[in-house]
């Protein structure tokens, strides 16, 4: 069997292909239990931290990424939307996206090198209850993110000024426009096909918008799919429910996920498989399969 290779004549944006195929959003959110956001105000290269020399020294950027990742955080570059960006400012935010631990601490340093000294244990900065909406517009990483992501910004900024930022690569380029809502770590995709203000309004009301929800960053892909399936069956779209109790392979070779639902339990059984080979980004030239989870059953159980 020959691995499909994209030729220039056959090229189409990855997000167009994903929509044509009907790629499933649920379960596609990449992992990130804790995040460290850094304001990198300017043009980004393919890697916002390593390839943006006019804004951030690449050596310093590499040291910063290593420090953030070694502490168990996921680095994310952010900048203010539009032309007026905070050049010369080095604002940061430390975010815990784990269920039950959601928190944001914000701070600012006068020089980028000082970011290497910011404590990552939550002991620095000012606690904040404000939502952070990070919209991927990282065009040098993937053109779909720039084209589709930027259409989300204007209405989102207009409705929720101060909460919305442009951000670097989130993963899931084929689902552009993508965004993550912190501190809950809720990924959304295909948002340019949605009413982004409605999604954010529902979030502030404590609800997810399931038709555009990819999953929660602190959870595995299997649990993300299980939550989506349980929400659909139970018609319960609250953010703060259906947290995982366990996830394990069963004797049948399938994945069994147990979720809490207000003191009761819901068991979701999933069959893991692989898709047909696809191109997952605009830059990809060799197609490959992606992991998928088919819902076998959703069974509410007796109270714990």
Short structural summary:
The chain has 304 residues and is an alpha+beta fold. It has helices at residues 14-21, 58-70, 143-159, 196-204, 221-234; strands spanning 34-39, 74-79, 90-96, 103-109, 126-128, 132-136, 164-167, 179-182, 186-188, 213-216, 244-249, 255-261, 264-274, 291-300.
The poorly predicted ranges are 1-9
Shape: globular
Q: Which oligomeric state applies?
A: single chain
Structural class: alpha+beta
Helix content bin: 10-25%
Characterize the largest beta sheet: strand count, sense, and whether it forms a barrel: 10 strands, mixed
- Mean pLDDT, to the nearest integer, reads 92
Largest sheet: spatial strand order: 5-4-3-1-2-7-6-8-9-10
Strand fraction: 25-35%
If you compute it from the alpha carbons, what radius of gyration comes out, rounded to the nearest whole angstrom?
20 Å
How would you characterize the overall build of this protein?
The protein is of the alpha+beta class and 304 residues long. The chain contains five helices and 14 strands. It has a ten-stranded mixed beta sheet with strand order 5-4-3-1-2-7-6-8-9-10. A four-stranded antiparallel beta sheet has the order 11-12-13-14, covered by helices on one side. The longest helix is centred in the middle third of the chain and has 17 residues, at 143-159.
List its traits.
ten-stranded mixed β-sheet, 14 strands, 304 residues, alpha+beta
Topology:
Layout: H1 14-21, E1 34-39, H2 58-70, E2 74-79, E3 90-96, E4 103-109, E5 126-128, E6 132-136, H3 143-159, E7 164-167, E8 179-182, E9 186-188, H4 196-204, E10 213-216, H5 221-234, E11 244-249, E12 255-261, E13 264-274, E14 291-300
Parallel strand pairs: 1-2, 6-7
Antiparallel strand pairs: 1-3, 2-7, 3-4, 4-5, 6-8, 8-9, 9-10, 11-12, 12-13, 13-14
């Amino acid at each position: 069997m020959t691995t499909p290779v994209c030729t220039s004549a056959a090229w189409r944006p990855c997000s167009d292909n994903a929509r044509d195929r009907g790629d499933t959003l649920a379960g596609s959110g990449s992992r990130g239990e804790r995040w460290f956001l850094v304001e990198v105000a300017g043009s980004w290269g393919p890697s916002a931290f390593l390839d943006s020399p006019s804004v951030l020294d690449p050596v310093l950027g590499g040291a910063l990424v290593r420090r953030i990742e070694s502490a168990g955080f996921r680095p994310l570059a952010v900048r203010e939307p539009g032309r007026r960006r905070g050049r010369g400012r080095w604002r940061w935010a430390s975010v815990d996206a784990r269920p039950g631990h959601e928190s944001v601490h914000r701070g600012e340093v006068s020089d980028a090198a000082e970011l290497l000294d910011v404590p990552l244990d939550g002991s620095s900065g000012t606690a904040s209850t404000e939502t952070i909406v990070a919209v991927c517009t990282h065009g040098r990483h993937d053109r779909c993110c720039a084209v589709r992501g930027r259409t989300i910004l204007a209405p989102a900024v207009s409705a929720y000024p101060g909460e919305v930022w442009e951000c670097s690569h989130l993963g899931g380029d084929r689902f552009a426009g993508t965004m993550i809502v912190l501190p809950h770590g809720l990924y959304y995709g295909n948002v340019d096909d949605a009413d982004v203000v409605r999604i954010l309004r529902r979030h502030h009301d404590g609800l997810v918008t399931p038709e555009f929800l990819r999953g929660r960053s602190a959870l595995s892909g299997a649990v993300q799919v299980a939550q989506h399936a349980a929400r659909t069956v139970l018609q319960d779209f609250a953010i703060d429910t259906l947290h995982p109790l366990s996830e394990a392979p069963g004797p049948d070779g399938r994945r069994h996920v147990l979720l809490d639902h207000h003191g009761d339990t819901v068991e979701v059984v999933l069959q893991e498989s692989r898709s047909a080979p696809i191109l997952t980004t605009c830059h990809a030239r060799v197609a490959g399969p992606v992991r998928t989870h088919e819902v076998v059953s959703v069974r509410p159980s007796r109270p714990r």
